[in-house]
Amino acid sequence: MTLFYVTYKSKRNILNKQIDHLLHKKRTNWRARQIAYLPQHMNDQIPYTVSEFVAMGRFVYRTQSGALTKACRERIEEGLHRLNLLPYRDTPMVQLSGGEQQRAAIARCLIQESHILLLDEPIASLDLYYQMDILQQLKNLSSQKYLVIVVLHNIELAARFCSHLIMLNKGRILHQGPTQEIFNEQTVQDLFGMPIPIYPDPYSGHLRMSIHSIEGD
Predict the structure, then answer these.
(1) Average pLDDT of the chain to the nearest whole number
(2) What is the pLDDT of residues 186-196, one digit of tens each?
(3) Does 149 map to a domain?
(4) N or C: which end of the chain has fewer CB within 10 A?
(5) Which of 83, 85, 82, 59 is nearest to 72 (CA)?
(6) 216 in a domain, yes or no?
């Protein structure tokens, strides 16, 4: 089962509880092999090239001497390719845009080959193409029995790609369950505090929200 989070306000406490539960009393090597984590914010002065940074996702698989195995090098190449980072492989991370750094961080998580992914706002700095591409890649992983937990603020994309939703407001769970059951006009009104019609997109069939105006504007 894939569990996605969609949040409005103050999701940090609940996400941290999930991380603490998964990591409690587990050894570092076990955690690295089982859980990949993408934080919401990264250090913007990372002193590595893109390939060096992505390679950190294979740290736990290195030999006793610290060398990368052939399989590790192959996974690194795959990660760079999947996130369209091959042209930047030797570029220092500090020279990348925010979105490019985000893609490198996601590539690092993916090549870790952990079956639990915790991703805090993975598409926040990305343009539309990469938002859709990465969410589709994550959805594909979920169909391969990966557990993917993602924090998103775009509820339309959450409803499109996620099998389950947890809607939060001010740190409190408002609604949770299968997407097709809880993504509706009533739950969205509870979440945002205003009536928002929901309709099927005439081209794709995916559910969309129609936001006209805020009362009083």
Answers:
(1) 84
(2) 999 998 888 99
(3) yes
(4) C
(5) 59
(6) no
Q: Is residue 146 part of a domain?
A: yes
Tell me the three state secondary structure of residue 213: coil
Residue 166 burial class via C-beta count within 10 angstroms: exposed 0-12, middle 13-18, buried 19 and up? buried
Q: How many CA atoms lie within 13 A of 50 on its CB side?
A: 25
Q: How many domains does the chain have?
A: 1
Cβ burial of 24 (10 Å; 0-12, 13-18, 19+) is exposed
Q: Is the dihedral of CA 20, 24, 28, 33 positive or negative?
A: negative
Confirm whether pTM is higher than 0.90. no
Name the pLDDT band for 175 (thresholds 50, 70, 90): very high
Q: What is the pLDDT of residues 71-97, one digit of tens each?
A: 999 999 999 999 999 999 999 999 999
The CATH number of the domain holding residue 117 is: 3.40.50.300
No. of helices (H) and no. of strands (E), the chain: 9, 8
SS3 9: coil
What distances in angstroms separate CA 36 from CA 83, 107, 114, 189, 211, one per listed residue? 17, 11, 6, 33, 36
**Quick one: 33 exposed, middle or buried, by C-beta within 10 A (0-12, 13-18, 19+)?**
middle
Q: Could you list the residue range(s) of the whole structural domain that residue 77 is in?
A: 5-209
